[in-house]
Amino acid sequence: MADLKTWDAGGQKITIRKDLGAPMRDGVTLALDVYHGPEDKPRPALVAMSPYGKELQAQSLMLPPQRRPSPLWDGCLEAGDIARIVGEDYVHVIADLRGSGASGGVMVGNYNAGGTPLGQDAYDLIEWVAEQPWCDGNVGMVGVSYFASMQVLAAAERPPHLKAIFCSGGHYDFYETSYHGGILWFMPRAAREGRGGDSGIAVADIRSRMQAQLSPEELAARVEARLADPDVARWPNLAHILHYPKNRELWYDIILNELDGEYYEERNPITLAPNIDIPVYVQINWGRGWTVDGSIELFKALRGPRKLDLLPYPPMQERPFHEVHDDMFRWYDHWLKGIDTGVMDEPAVKVFVEGSRKWVTSPRWPLDGVEHRPLYLRPRRRLSADPEPLGPEYAAPDGFYQAPLTVTDQVETLTWATEPFAEETGMAGTGAAHLFVEIDTDDTNLILRLWDTAPDGGRQLVTTGYLKASHRELDERTTEGDPYHPHTRAVPVEPGVIEEYVVRLYPFANSFRPGHRLEVELSCDEPLADTHNSLLPPEAMHLPSGRATSHKVYRDAAHRSRLVLPFTTA
């Protein structure tokens, strides 16, 4: 029997149905809590699903929203503003995924790939919710990040009562969520283990897919191969997990899958998106380059009514998540309540342009009126629209040597900058960096960060790009200013050979005001602290290079290292 309670949220009465159980088709029961207004009547329901624990999500009734770098910011508080949802006369349903929280069953691998598909569970839960006396049969979904990814997995299963979804701040390309340009990113560890401002998964019964599928001999060979990578071997936590994976099964599997492939693709929301025919609203904040890319790819793959908002910097929404609820209720009032809110009369794409801090709208992305043009790396750390006329014997390369962070705290960085812009200069889209680099080891990281720098020295991040040098291969999707890397194999660098590396710059929109400059930084490790990183959780860093490496960057008449950027012409 469910525990029925009443909560007083500042004078607003909320009825809480605790610890309900929804049966899945294979006999597993998912645990959930239900929140709605005190009147006993059916309402549209918004369903939230994650492994982070329904009890944690109840903190939204007590904890004021926190913005990074607040130490109270918790990345797993993502199910939405319970009081606001109930106040708008919706039912808020918060469920624990199988293998987590109070739910039964086993969670296997990445988004349960290799086990029971989580989209299948979402289907069963949504249809169960639609049949309850407190639901009027109209169901949507709510929540950011993991919750948003679950919405796409659910919609791809086409449950009949799911009428629309609203995906804000989600991540959809599971490989790119874990490896940026082939470089391992630590934030998935934080979400899974509970580190650096994340509560992590409410572990009940989670299994390693690699341990289930591989023989002991195959598993030992995979572990040995990963430990042969100096980047992994010289990071104590990773070496420890590879030896002792218990209670870190999902992170263990990610470490063992450093290349893109079946592990990440089996339940890839972008691959599943063409199966979705219900209305989908996609949102993402600038500064979260890896998920901006995935959100745009998801939007482009959808087949039904769709909208895309590219939202202002900074990258991380507040926790407990409460932002963009105005947009969400305009969407759901239209699709779940039949109220004409005008949301579908507006252009499909809405873009916030940093710098000018103006909104622009468009029927599509990429925007019209964009032309990719080069800015060349020049001597004296300059960026110029004109290429270098001198050969390498006169325009000697720039360079830096990076010692491993095992022996230094200093991250070496090369910087190039434009002259101050004489007039407002806009850019919107994806970019590329073509770098001719000579490396003296078999691998390194190439990390690029572009900044809008004001005359007083203040600056804001524009976009980033990441590439593990051994992942430099491009595939057939590549066009000028829009490179793609398959990340399906690693090709060691030949030391001492000048190689062209094309780094994808994540999508952005920025208007450089008169007097401002564009600065680009190149390093193989991230600075340990700066104005951008302080806005991210402490664990949101990339695996540093474990090799002592010299980098020579050639930018002469024979090696035209350059940025290719999406200048707006309208």
Helix and strand topology:
Elements: E1 3-9, E2 12-23, E3 29-36, E4 43-50, H1 54-57, H2 82-87, E5 91-96, E6 107-108, H3 118-130, E7 135-141, H4 146-156, E8 165-168, H5 174-178, E9 179-180, E10 183-184, H6 187-193, E11 206-207, H7 209-213, H8 216-227, H9 230-233, H10 236-243, H11 249-256, H12 262-265, H13 269-272, E12 280-285, H14 289-301, E13 306-311, H15 325-337, E14 349-353, E15 358-362, E16 370-378, E17 382-384, E18 398-402, E19 414-417, E20 425-439, E21 445-453, E22 459-468, E23 498-512, E24 517-523, E25 549-554, E26 562-568
Parallel strand pairs: 4-5, 4-7, 6-11, 8-12, 12-13, 13-14
Antiparallel strand pairs: 1-2, 2-3, 3-5, 9-10, 14-15, 16-17, 16-26, 18-25, 19-24, 20-23, 20-25, 20-26, 21-22, 21-24
Helix pairs in contact: 3-4
Describe the structure.
By secondary structure, the protein is of the alpha+beta class. The chain has two domains: 3-207 and 257-341, Rossmann fold; 370-568, Galactose-binding domain-like (Jelly Rolls), CATH 2.60.120.260. Helix content is 21%, strand content 30%. The chain is built from 15 helices and 26 strands. The strands form six sheets. Strands 16, 17, 18, 20, 23, 25 and 26 form a seven-stranded antiparallel beta sheet that branches. Helix 14 (289-301) links the parallel strand 12 and strand 13. Helix 3 crosses helix 4 (146-156). It is globular and about 80 Å long. The chain starts with a strand and ends with a strand. The model has no long low-confidence stretch (mean pLDDT 94).
